[in-house]
Amino acid sequence: MRVLCCSGSLESGGSERQLWQLAVGLPAERFEAQIYLIYRRGTYLSQIPAHIPVHDFSSQPLGRMSRWPGAIHRQQVRHMIATLREQQIDVVYDRTFHMTLLTTAACRATGTPRVSVIVSPPSRDFVHSNERFGWIKKRLLARAYRDPRSLCLAVSNAVAEDAASFYRVPKARIQVVPSPIDIAAVERAAQAGEAAVHDATFRWLVVGRLSEEKGQRLAIEAMAKL
């Protein structure tokens, strides 16, 4: 089965890491993973094994009408359609609503099944992104998540409930699959690092951007209790 894993780039964000982890971790005896990017850049790009093909839109010349509203999106859809057909892709996997807008149009044209992952509560993520033509994109996303030929995933129950309310999608349409953690890789990285400092100081590390859904407020409250 040929799986096309789609992302805007392979920068060092959480969604990019999860997509990279899926692409390199799929069992080779059952799946042939390929990667599709809008921009061919990012920390994880150098960590893609040579046997995994990487396709990107950024290498394509933009048309003369690219300044018109929606022109670049239409070019991206055409490029992805060509990729799906040339590579004979069996299923598409995307993360973030930006990629879902692209993969939905391309998969509808080719009849390719799609798995789309909602990674943040859209009532904050989508609203705060200040999207142009946001009301149109919201309707397109609602239709994409309702599509019976697709699978809609969310990374947590809270995200699933927020998405069902925001897009007015039946909650049963959204399956919750928490993002995995490669514990073995974390342990290897810890062992390869510098020796731990042994003193009486208690050190606390919180990893995550300063946005509400990351729960930094809860971390501060936990510190106070300790």
Mind sketching the topology for me?
Blueprint: E1 2-7, H1 14-25, E2 32-37, E3 54-56, H2 71-87, E4 91-95, H3 97-110, E5 114-118, H4 122-128, H5 134-146, E6 150-154, H6 157-167, E7 174-176, H7 183-192, H8 216-225
Helix pairs in contact: 2-3, 3-5
Describe it.
The protein is globular and about 65 Å long. Helices cover 42% and strands 15% of the residues. Helix 1 links the parallel strand 1 (2-7) and strand 2. A seven-stranded parallel sheet has the order 3-2-1-4-5-6-7, sandwiched between helices. The protein has helices spanning 14-25, 71-87, 97-110, 122-128, 134-146, 157-167, 183-192, 216-225, and strands spanning 2-7, 32-37, 54-56, 91-95, 114-118, 150-154, 174-176. The chain has eight helices and seven strands, in the order E-H-E-E-H-E-H-E-H-H-E-H-E-H-H. The longest helix has 17 residues, at 71-87.
